[in-house]
Known about the structure:
alpha/beta, 22% strand, 7-stranded mixed beta sheet
Amino acid sequence: xxxxxTFKLTYATMFNPPEELHQKFEAALAQVRASLGxxxxxxxxxxxxxxDEKFEDRNPANTDQVLGxxxxxxxxxxxxxxxxxxxxxxxxxxxxxxxRVALVRKAADLMDQRxxxxxxxxxxxxxxxxxxxxxxxxxxxxLFRYACDRMEASNGFITEMGRDPLVGFESTNLSVLRPYGVxxxxxxxxxxxxxxxxxxxxxxxxxxxxxxxxxxxxxxxARLIAECLRDAGIPDGVFNYVTGPGSTLGQALIDSPEVxxxxxxxxxxxxMKIFRDFAQGRxxxxxxxxxxxxxxxxxxxHADLEDAAVGIVRSAFGLQGQKCSACSRVFIExxxxxxxxxxxxxxTEKLTIGDPTDRKVYLGPVVNRSSYRDYQxxxxxxxxxxxxxxxxxxxxxxxxxxxxxCTPTLVVDxxxxxxxxxxxxxxxxxxxxxxxxxxxxxxxxxxVQYGLTAGFYGTPEEVxxxxxxxxxxxxxxxxLQGATTxxxxxxxxxxxxxxxxxxxxxxxxxxxxxxxxxxxxxTRVRRI
Length: 528
């Protein structure tokens, strides 16, 4: 984060920011509020494009407030965007990779300059508190830079191989990773900046052209990313930004034979449908899926309970539990169960709920009416089959009357066979259970279709055992900053096992760019 030279904003450092950060956020907040309600176009082949039908982007903290008017794109717009990307591909893919890196880095620099404006939009559009919102933007800039760094570190993924032992000939072999072509990025509402920008940067820096389709709950954030790409000088058609329903516009992108690869971040069910639909093409095409999680924290009887309590609450209720990495299950060894549960309740009840742009607020609203209803239905079920220790209700009075505000909820005494131990809820609800020993905890932790993140609190020897046995792609031990959340590019590459991800390679890591390229071996033979 360029604005504070001695402070680098990450999800691990966000809990104690400098005062200057809040002052700049407040100034940007006033500016953004003065511009609400404007219409925003799609961007296709470098041009602003408008659709016949529109939709409103509303603030989930105050649904009377229209943030902006966006285009309800159609299958025709999807096809126009894909055609623009196809037309731009030969030029972009043949550009020197160093030139692509320079343009993508310039876009990252623009995000740094615009971080407060973009952070305010994320807070208002998603319901993230201001630090989480700023973190989303800062992470995106770092994802852009990390993609550039990996391209440079790998020399553009051009590697000299062995020379054939031919008598009278010189035979050289090069391994070259080359872009696939036209790439589609379908991003979710919860990290509308990082999960739009990260895959887009990886696709672009490796030479693919891109069509971006954000979630309909968060079109404005993605538009701001597109503006950074445009203003950085990335040529027309190399990236395209379209908005509209997943059932029409999104499906047209998925079904098109013009798509050479796709990255989708979202729910398991939708991701698996995309996987199956995309497989109907003429050949196998790369499908990068980052899906859900049902992330456990395991607490040993030897753990530092205060660290465990703080880390669990931060991961359970950051962004109102609407993270695929949220800590939604906690398994505690019996000797320390009562003590830790008591502390978890106390910390949870101190969390401030309200307008996420307010610096005092930790929990904003859930993102939309559907999530609001889900929360209420889950709580009704959990109150009948378990015991709600705190939370379990929506807030409807006063400042909460026009938003989707839900109280953070801790549940105990839920039978092990209850389906909500395994179903991703994506709302601020966490279930807790005592276990006789760590082996029982591990068995229950792994007994789900997901394998995204996991956390552990205990001794160094127990930590080694945890890493050896847990089935998850991102794992943390004794982390005060978050039991299961807080990954950052270049530090904790993010991706999952089993039903949580398709590639086995984590975003923001050393193996991610290769997913956006396929290998060509170039053999040259000459007589000597």
